[in-house]
Design goal:
The protein has 364 residues and is an all-alpha fold. It is built from 14 helices and two strands, in the order ααααααααββαααααα. A two-stranded antiparallel ribbon has the order 1-2. The termini are far apart.
């Protein structure tokens, strides 16, 4: 697959002239509202990088070098969202077993009262950790249009960098050259040097996804889904990077590599912070946001008992076992009371003596 218009100087001039304003970006999702404006901003960044490299006299390998710098800049701009997403991921890993135990508790109960109690108890769990049901979705939803805005810039770089029209077809061809690989062509399903790009894209996609996953304990369906996605995404990356022009695959490789480096330092940072401090800070941030909205703070009594954070969270089976033990204790005390009551006078004093006797025998 070739971008033939790059070798037609006249056509390239017309294309770049049409793309000089943000209202005339290329078709597809690059022309959607909001996405179009985001793409124009990222295109402005790409154009600045191109101008700086051109001033340094760079021609050969210009496009891959622009992609490297561009990816580093944009990933640094998105770093606050990445950190916020990772903080929620770590807290969610601690919170998920409690949510699952609650869901099991109300399993099969669909009446209005039970559903109301479940929502109330679920909200109490979220308050306990200073988060909300939408906390994990918002960073992802914000990043989605940004990611959509990135691809048109990479895919149709001449549309966002009008200065490329000042170069000859031969110079533009050299710009898309990376160690003898023509980045304008798709690697395809054949053995050639370009095949290393989709292979690297799949491998690095796997490691970047794996590093973002929290450590899961116990039976966690959500964790199983994440693992499944962790194995599927590399194959999806491989397929797209083989079928599309190699410069898109190269961008995918650099993006995954930058994400791995970022995630390494983010994980190290959060590993040094005790979970109780992380949750306490999360509650404080949530209360500041609630105060701005005129809402009361989260009940501080619902905060996590920090002494228990290092112990495993009880599973639904363990909670059920403890409940059965408590019920068995109640039955034993009831049987003991009835047995004694059958052979006593029935006076209030005799009943009090029975309770005291039972408590002493069981050291309660």
């Amino acid at each position: 697959m070739k971008l033939g218009f790059l070798f037609d100087t006249e056509a390239a001039a017309e294309t770049t002239a049409a793309a000089a304003t943000p209202s005339t970006t290329t078709g597809g999702f690059g022309s959607w509202p909001v996405i179009k404006q985001i793409a124009w901003v990222f295109g402005f960044i790409m154009q600045g990088i191109f101008i700086v490299l051109a001033a340094m006299g760079v021609v050969s390998g210009m496009v891959p070098l622009c992609i490297v710098v561009f990816t580093i800049v944009t990933k640094m701009l998105l770093l606050p969202l990445t950190i916020k997403q990772q903080r929620f991921t770590k807290i969610n890993a601690l919170m998920t077993p409690e949510i699952q135990a609650l869901q099991k508790k109300y399993e099969g109960k669909r009446d209005q009262i039970s559903m109301g109690k479940m929502r109330s108890e679920q909200q109490a769990i979220y308050d306990k950790y200073g988060t909300s049901m939408s906390a994990g979705c918002l960073p992802s939803l914000i990043q989605l249009p940004l990611l959509f805005g990135l691809y048109p810039v990479i895919y149709n770089m001449p549309n966002y960098v009008p200065q490329m029209a000042n170069y000859t077809a031969d110079q533009i061809s050299r710009m898309y050259n990376l160690f003898g690989i023509n980045l304008m062509e798709a690697p395809g399903w054949k053995i050639q040097p370009a095949i290393i790009i989709p292979l690297l894209a799949g491998i690095l996609s796997y490691f970047s996804s794996k590093m973002m996953q929290p450590k899961q304990s116990g039976d966690n369906p959500a964790g199983g889904s994440m693992k499944m996605m962790n194995y599927m995404m590399p194959f999806i990356s491989l397929f797209f990077c083989i079928s599309l022009p190699a410069f898109l695959g190269f961008y995918w490789v650099i993006q995954s590599l930058v994400m791995i480096i970022q995630q390494y330092f983010i994980n190290r940072y959060y590993d040094k912070i005790p979970m109780e401090d992380l949750i306490k800070a999360n509650i404080e941030k949530t209360n500041k946001k609630r105060a701005k909205k005129g809402l009361p703070p989260i009940n501080q009594n619902a905060a996590v008992n920090t002494k228990k954070l290092n112990t495993p969270v009880k599973s639904a089976e363990e909670a059920a076992t403890e409940a059965e033990k408590r019920a068995q204790g109640i039955r034993q005390s009831t049987d003991y009371y009835n047995q004694k009551a059958g052979s006593s006078s029935g006076s209030l004093a005799s009943k009090a003596n029975m309770v005291r006797d039972y408590n002493e025998r069981h050291k309660n």
